[in-house]
Prior knowledge:
The structure holds three protein chains of three kinds.
Chain A: H1 3-13, H2 20-40, H3 45-56, H4 59-69, H5 72-107, E1 116-126, E2 130-140, E3 143-152, E4 166-169, E5 177-184, E6 188-195, E7 202-207, E8 212-216
Antiparallel strand pairs in A: 1-2, 2-3, 3-6, 4-7, 5-6, 7-8
Helix pairs in contact in A: 1-2, 1-4, 2-3
Chain B: H1 4-21, E1 24-25, H2 26-36, H3 48-57, E2 61-68, E3 71-78, H4 80-107
Antiparallel strand pairs in B: 1-3, 2-3
Helix pairs in contact in B: 1-4
Chain C: H1 3-24, H2 31-41, E1 48-55, E2 58-65, E3 70-79, E4 82-85, E5 90-93, E6 100-107, E7 112-119, E8 126-131, E9 136-139, E10 146-152, E11 159-164, E12 170-175
Antiparallel strand pairs in C: 1-2, 2-3, 3-4, 3-5, 6-7, 7-10, 8-9, 8-11, 11-12
Amino acid sequence: MNKHEFLETVKKQVLYIFDRQDIVYELSEHIDDSARDMMEEGLSYDEALDIAIKQMGNPVEIGKELNKAHHPFIGYTFLISKIIIILNIIPMFLCVGMLGFDTINFVLPVSTRGGEDVVEIKETIELPTERFFIDKVCVKDDTYYLTYRSINNITYTRTTYGMRPFLIVDELGQSIERSSNSHGGWICDIGFREFEMPDDKILYLKFIDHQIITLDLTEYGYE
Amino acid sequence: MIDKGYISGSTRLLVLNVLQEKACHGYEIIKVLKLRSNDVFDMKEGTLYPILHKLENDEYIISKNEMVNGRMRKVYHITDKGVKVLAEDKAQWKEFSSAVNQVIAFGG
Amino acid sequence: MNRVRKLILNTLVIICSLFLIYYFGGFYISKETCDLHTMRSFYVNETTYIMEFSNNNYTKTIYANPEEKTMSIVGSKRMGFWHQTASSSTGHKIDMNNKLDTFGSYSRDFGGMITVVYRNDSAIDKVEVCYDDGFCVVLDDWKQDFAGVFIKDKMWQNGIYKAYDNQGNLIAEISY
């Protein structure tokens, strides 16, 4: 049997085809090393190669044992799992990125880019689908902002489709908001509302489930 | 020629022992075993490779592609897990071989 | 790490990512839960199932709250085993001042429009609707005082709704 035939026979026994190349190379190098050593002892190239191959043993047996070590079931299942993950890498990366971004945004205090804190509120309001944290009121260039964060209830991950969960109103229920800005993520929201400060310094927050929360800013230390 | 039965049971012990001293590629291991045992261990060389690959699956050795004498070869290194199991194998072998010696000493 | 360990790790990663898709993708096993969450997301409180209309794997289900006198039309879509919120959902406060009230929903992916009427007077036996384009339909299959119809491939239209009692007398009329 020549070297090529030997290696081909071994190769055929290994059913997981992606490991064949490495195996054949390793065995081929071994045969060459063995032949080289024998040539140093005086044998001709052909004789040395022939003996080297014979000394390897039965190629079918070797191949079958190698097949057990490179089991095709594990090999192919692993290959499939690798492909699925590679196909998934970009969406998953985006997912994890979104969640991480969300969490960071939620945990850091809401910044109003240069505003000055006026009064800290730190109230928590529970709605069936989310929990609200009203943080503080701040002022920038004579405009007042109310900052807040909200986090979805864990059994409920869908964001409200563009609805405003609460509105800042006066005693008559009329909105005193000027503009609002919010960043909505998958599990949480942060935002701030620009509003006109009423003279009596009392804010009413009207929530979408008809709750009305009264915030008397003087109670929080505002003059 | 030694009975194959004696060899197959202790191949792991032999191979790991060689690799503990020095990381080798397949052919080197064969040469060391032949040399050290004065040619008593002269197994069919091809059968070493399934053994090496199985040892790698069990994480007792790890293979790395390194340059040896100008050619890229798969070189096997023993792992910490391999060192541990080698020590256990050696202890078991000592126990086994001393028990056999004791028994045949009686036989005369 | 040997191949078996890598395979196990990959399988865990795949399972985690499937779970993320399930959790954030809004997939539900039961349509009821899907509709319930949709209604919670726009903060309505309907308690009773009235009727539903299906077309092409899309379903619009009508729910109502008899105490608060509100109703909603909730859209959902079925994909194999899973249900998802789809096509529009809307809520409506029933006008209790009139004998007859009507509400509707249209969306392109649902493939047509739905008209629902509510009778505030139990003498009403049937309601005849005539739309601006001349198409007329009779609603007389009452489920808890609601009756509805799905008109395929029709875009939203205004029409005149006439309610008759079982003798054929006109009791109420609205245009919507």
